[in-house]
Amino acid sequence: MERLLVLVRHGQSEWNLKNLFTGWKDPGLTEQGVTEAHKAGQQLRDLKLTFDIAFTSVLSRAQRTLDIMLEELGQTGLETLKDQALNERDYGDLTGMNKDQAREEFGEEQVHIWRRSYDVPPPGGESLKMTAERVLPYYKSEILPRVLEGKRTLVSAHGNSLRSLIMELENLSPEEILKRELGTGTPIVYRIDENGGVLSVQDLAD
C-alpha cells in the first residue's frame, strides 16, 4: 500500500509581493501566485498523482492554491478539511509591516532574531516553536492517520506551518529547519512507511 503525503506552500500573495509580514491576515494571490498554483497542479498531474483527501488552513491564499491545483488534477470537490492549526505563523505586532521598515524601526539584528530564531516570538506573535506546538498535534491526530490508512493526502498551507511539518518528517533540528527555504507553489512529495517515517522525498523545485 502506497502512503503519500504532498505539502505545498500557497502561491505568491499580494503581501508577499509587497514584502509585508502577513501571518494571519488574509490577502489574496497575485497573478504570479495563481500561475504558481496552476504549475503546482500540473506538476502533480505530470507525476500522475491523484488524492483521496486534502487539508488546508482557514486563510484564502492557501485555499485558493488548493482549489487551483485540484482543478488541474480534475479533482474539484475532493474532501477537504480546513483548520486554523495549519495557519501561517502569527507575526503579532509586525503583521502588515514592511520588512525593511521593521528593520529600520527595530534594528536588523532584532528583526533577524524574530524571523530566524526558533523560540523567540515577535511582540504579540508566535515563534516557530509555538507554531509547531499547534501544527504537530493536528498533524498527528488528523493528517497522519489518514496517510497511514493509505489515503493519498494533499496539504496546502504556509511557509512556517509547513516548516513545522517538515521538521517532524525529516527529523531536522531547529537550526536546520530555520535554514530551509520553501518556494511558493512548489510541491514536496513524501512517501511514508507504516510507522509514519519517510521512505523518500521529492522536492519538485529541484
From TrEMBL:
Keyword Isomerase among record annotations: yes
GO BP annotations listed: gluconeogenesis; glycolytic process
PROSITE patterns reported in the protein's UniProt record: PG_MUTASE (PS00175)
Any matching Pfam family: His_Phos_1
The protein's annotated pathway: Carbohydrate degradation; glycolysis; pyruvate from D-glyceraldehyde 3-phosphate: step 3/5
Keywords: Gluconeogenesis, Glycolysis, Isomerase
Keyword Isomerase recorded: yes
Chain positions recorded as substrate binding sites: 9-16, 22-23, 61, 88-91, 99, 115-116, 159-160
Site (Transition state stabilizer): H158
Catalytic activity of the protein: (2R)-2-phosphoglycerate = (2R)-3-phosphoglycerate
Catalytic-site annotation from UniProt: H10, E88
Gene3D superfamilies from the UniProt entry: Phosphoglycerate mutase-like
InterPro entries for this protein: His_Pase_superF_clade-1, His_PPase_superfam, PG/BPGM_mutase_AS, Phosphogly_mut1
Gene Ontology MF terms: phosphoglycerate mutase activity
Protein's job: Catalyzes the interconversion of 2-phosphoglycerate and 3-phosphoglycerate.
Complexes and interactors: Homodimer.
Name of the featured protein: 2,3-bisphosphoglycerate-dependent phosphoglycerate mutase
Source species: Roseibium album
